[in-house]
Task: inverse folding
């Protein structure tokens, strides 16, 4: 890792303070707990991340990024990374941020909406022993951006088909595997319905919006903690409140959020396949589901799960609307449902624990329809739907 170069004799006070804090931290703590987010970096993706907000973020962390359309910080110095190679060279741990990075990158390039394919593959194979890899946010990925070009040696092929070493330069530390032509890397943040934020560690060092239908590469990250804290206490929700929830978490809902990308779930199936853990939310989900029931029948069903200590637990409950909606995915699975294939698909419409606040004389609860990715309301004493129980760890 290189040292930051400061020219001249006038040194800004803030840099002296940052350096002192870093040195103190390095001396006091040899290792960083994987539950720590040291710099307060945002790990939750944002849909409609504006250029103005990116500019503020660049200046806040003093990230380096060449200017594109009034967004950039060409005089930024970046952060003082403290890298350590782990897991037989597969992982780079940055003690300055507490983040674990894939040392390599995706060999295939993906359109933005297909990035889950690569992340799911990493988690299914437990890459480097972990299954909570995810796409980095823009500010997380920019922590890797160096303000000066670093020399990388890659293996090229000459005209006769022979391999030969080549030198290239990019704005990322040489501890990371070099790409053959330093392509663009996706972040988890979208700019609008047609573009998402990318970072290019090329000779210029760029960040900016890029069309979501164009392919980019991916360098996965993990932080070892659950970034999303969803409400677990039931409440009455108006249609306006539901719209705010959808916007807050960028949930995908057919007909409501046509461009929502959903949560970057990190699923793990239990050893006995009875429940699914989502490390993005910290929630334990019943893998199977009930038959169709009235809401009163659904509560009785959950009581029966707790009575027999289903999978060893007695605190199962009906999920809130936002918990249940966190399972909704923006693309149909191979079975035709908008939910991960780790879950059983015997039923398609599910009760939430939240009531629908309206002037209608009858009582309704919010439901989610994974058959078409939409939401709605169902009458408590007449309609029958399934329940997928949940618990908080």
Result:
């Amino acid at each position: 890792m290189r040292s930051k170069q400061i020219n001249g004799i006038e040194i800004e006070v803030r840099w002296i303070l940052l350096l002192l804090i870093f040195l103190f931290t390095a001396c006091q703590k040899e290792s960083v707990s994987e539950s720590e987010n040291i710099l307060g970096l945002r790990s939750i993706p944002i849909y409609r991340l504006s250029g103005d907000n990116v500019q503020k973020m660049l200046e806040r962390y003093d990230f380096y990024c060449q200017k594109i359309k009034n967004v950039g910080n060409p005089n930024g110095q970046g952060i003082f990374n403290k890298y350590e190679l782990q897991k037989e060279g597969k992982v780079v741990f940055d003690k300055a941020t507490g983040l674990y990075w894939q040392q390599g990158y995706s060999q295939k390039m993906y359109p933005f909406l297909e990035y889950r394919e690569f992340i799911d593959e990493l988690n299914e194979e437990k890459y480097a022993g972990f299954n909570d890899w995810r796409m980095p946010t823009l500010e997380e990925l920019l922590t890797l951006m160096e303000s000066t070009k670093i020399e990388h040696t890659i293996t090229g092929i000459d005209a006769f088909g022979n391999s030969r070493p080549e030198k290239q330069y990019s704005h990322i530390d040489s501890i990371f595997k070099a790409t053959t032509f330093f392509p663009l890397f996706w972040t988890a943040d979208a700019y609008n319905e047609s573009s998402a934020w990318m970072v290019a560690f090329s000779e210029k060092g760029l960040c900016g919006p890029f069309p979501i239908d164009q392919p980019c590469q991916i360098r996965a990250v993990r932080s070892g903690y659950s970034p999303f804290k969803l409400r677990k206490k039931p409440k009455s929700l108006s249609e306006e409140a539901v719209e705010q929830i959808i916007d807050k978490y960028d949930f995908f809902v057919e007909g409501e959020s046509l461009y929502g990308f959903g949560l970057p779930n990190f699923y793990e199936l239990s050893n006995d396949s009875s429940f699914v853990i989502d490390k993005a939310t910290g929630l334990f989900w019943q893998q199977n589901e009930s038959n169709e029931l009235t809401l009163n029948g659904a509560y009785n069903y959950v009581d029966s799960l707790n009575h027999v200590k289903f999978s060893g637990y007695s605190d199962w409950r009906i999920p809130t609307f936002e918990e249940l909606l966190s399972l909704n995915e923006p693309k149909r699975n191979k079975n035709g449902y908008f939910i991960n294939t780790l879950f059983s698909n015997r039923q398609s419409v599910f009760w939430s624990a939240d009531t629908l606040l309206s002037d209608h004389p009858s009582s309704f609860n919010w439901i989610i329809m994974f058959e078409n990715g939409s939401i709605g309301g169902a009458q408590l004493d007449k309609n029958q739907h399934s329940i997928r129980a949940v618990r908080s760890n």
In short: The two ends are 39 Å apart (CA to CA). The helical segments are 13-28, 51-61, 115-124, 138-142, 239-249, 295-307, 321-325. DSSP finds seven helices and 19 strands in the chain. The first strand starts at residue 65 and ends at 68.
